[in-house]
Here is the input.
Amino acid sequence: MKSSVKRGPTVFRRMMSELRVAQCVWLTNVRAAMENRAAFAMQIVGMMVNDLSFVIVWVLFFQAVGTVNGWGGWESVGLLGFGTVSLGLAFGCCGGTTWLTKYVEDSSLDNFILSPRNVLWRMLTSRFDLPAFGDALFGAILLLAFAIKMQLSAWSIALLLGCILPAASITLSMSLIAGCVAFYIQDAQGLAFSLFKTFLTPSLYPAGLFPRPAKMFFVFVLPSLAVGGFPVQVIEEGNFGLFLLIWGLAIFWLVAGIAVFSFSLRRYESGNAIGLRS
Here is the structure.
């Protein structure tokens, strides 16, 4: 006898439902940002100019000192390409992580807890960082220039594309973990930014500049080198084992980020703030 009880939606259907909601939020945010197209364009161009300064500094540095442990000017271009495109994708698609401390402090997190949607996913996709589009575009240009200059094979290009998603995932996960300090202390915005910057800064430095103990630290304690330094080495050396390590780190830190958020959410105390949310 067949049961008359209807089965709930499958995991796949729930995921697709969450993605459709996120798509609506993203499109709404983009349309709102583009109402003033001049400001929209200026913020993107401004971020690209800011990123260009890092490229110039490293290119001039390697022109002055020559290669260091196999790293030169074009390797630094690839490094900054991965770094900026990962930032752009992480905060362009899931910019809510940079607002987590504010959500906790002013009790805006209530809006996501009361929503029937997944709290974490709803929070992540609630905002997007407009200048992040400049990061993503600039990073894509750098990676294209790097691929052309290094005359990468089809296999190397596949490895390059395969390193972008885990790099963005690691960046997002570390930002999420840093933002969770707001559940434990007050006025945590400055501390959260400092913690994330501790992870981000080493990712913008060529891996060849770090001694071996520092490399181990910035791989297995803070996965900074997995964002930019290691992807460049994967492409140049065709090191598939290192490629798998990057993906393994991305999965580990994504799970860790979700676990830290879920555990920290238990400490959240609603401020009973009543308001409307568009």
In short: Residues 11-265 form one domain. The chain has one domain: 11-265.
